[in-house]
């Protein structure tokens, strides 16, 4: 079916408007982050001079070195744990036949429908009763559990689409389940796994509610939580606030920039790009 010129024009106009709606605020924050504090009254404006010292001032005053380190530690731990567990569980649900697999799978999918606000209070008391509040474990374990429902769902779908004849050939060659998974299926599933890992990285890095409730000491604050406290102390210093926001968002932006090809291929192609 051919698309008319009028339809193409309408599509491009709508997409352009949505793109501008998303990009203009980001450009405003970037411009504000390099505007000298004495010239920054808030709002969208182009600075007459560039002041990169805002980033250094925000980094030092906001103690973002500690916050970023905490976020990196939590995010890497959650992504590694979730990826390994999701790969194993996804393979089991997709290719192994065991009693109650469908029931267990759909019970685990309930985690996709349960918002953090629904369990944050009982989670706090449960973790406090075992002495895990205000620790990295109190952030890593719940966020791994949260992400695992999506990870299992994603990997099960990917593994179910893997060519069955390849699996049968590997089994005829004597490959057991673990060898079949890690030497045959996983190498062909790098793009889908990277897509899942990148999504979990973004979700974990941007998590705010769990650190807010479960973390009390400054040493364990993550970057988004540290940014909230920094905002409270510099409410009218728009240049420093914008610079701090850019600092917190920059790692995810850079990560997506370098992995966008694999992210898109994993979303669209799956095993087709192996």
Question: Care to describe what's here?
Answer:
The chain folds into two domains: about 5-55, no CATH class; about 60-274, MetI-like fold, CATH 1.10.3720.10. About 75% of the residues lie in helices and about 0% in strands. The protein is built from twelve helices and no strands. It has helices at about 5-35, 55-60, 65-95, 100-115, 115-130, 135-160, 165-170, 175-190, 190-205, 210-215, 225-235, 240-270. The two termini are about 30 Å apart. About 30% of the residues are buried.
User: What is the succession of H and E elements?
Assistant: HHHHHHHHHHHH
Major sheet characteristics: none
Rounded to the nearest angstrom, the distance between the terminal CA atoms is 30 Å
Q: What is the count of structural domains?
A: 2
Q: Whole-number radius of gyration?
A: 23 Å
For the secondary structure, the number of strands is: 0
Low-confidence stretches: none
How much of the residues is beta strand, in percent? Answer: under 5%
CATH topology of the largest domain: MetI-like fold
The percent range for helix content is: over 70%
Averaging pLDDT over every residue, what do you get?
86
Number of H- or I-type helical stretches: 12
Question: Tell me, what is the CATH class of the largest domain?
Answer: Mainly Alpha
Q: Strands, helices and their partners?
A:
Blueprint: H1 5-33, H2 53-61, H3 64-95, H4 101-113, H5 116-129, H6 137-160, H7 164-172, H8 177-188, H9 190-206, H10 209-214, H11 223-233, H12 238-268
Helix pairs in contact: 1-12, 2-12, 3-6, 3-9, 3-11, 4-6, 6-9, 7-8, 9-12, 11-12
């Amino acid at each position: 079916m051919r698309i008319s010129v009028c339809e193409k024009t309408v599509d491009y106009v709508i997409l352009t408007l949505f793109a501008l709606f998303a990009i203009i605020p980001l450009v405003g924050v970037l411009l504000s982050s390099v505007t000298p504090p004495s010239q920054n009254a808030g709002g969208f404006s182009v600075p007459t001079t560039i002041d990169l010292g805002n980033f250094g001032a925000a980094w030092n005053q906001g103690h973002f070195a500690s916050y970023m380190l905490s976020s990196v530690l939590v995010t890497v731990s959650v992504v590694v744990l979730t990826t390994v567990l999701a790969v194993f569980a996804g393979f089991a649900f997709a290719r192994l036949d065991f009693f109650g697999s469908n029931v267990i799978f759909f019970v685990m999918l309930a985690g996709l429908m349960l918002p953090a606000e629904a369990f944050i209070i009982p989670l706090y008391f449960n973790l406090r009763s075992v002495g895990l509040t205000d620790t990295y474990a109190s952030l890593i374990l719940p966020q791994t559990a949260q992400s695992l429902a999506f990870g299992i769902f994603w990997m099960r779908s990917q593994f179910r689409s893997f060519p069955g004849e390849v699996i049968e050939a590997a089994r005829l060659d004597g490959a057991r389940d673990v060898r079949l998974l890690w030497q045959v299926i996983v190498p062909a599933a790098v793009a889908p796994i990277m897509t899942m890992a990148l999504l979990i990285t973004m979700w974990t890095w941007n998590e705010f509610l769990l650190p807010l409730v479960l973390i009390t000491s400054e040493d364990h604050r993550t970057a988004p939580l540290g940014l909230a406290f920094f905002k409270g102390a510099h409410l009218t210093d728009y240049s420093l606030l914008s610079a701090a926001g850019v600092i917190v968002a920059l790692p995810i932006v850079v990560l997506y920039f370098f992995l966008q090809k694999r992210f898109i291929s994993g979303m669209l192609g799956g095993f087709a790009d192996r």
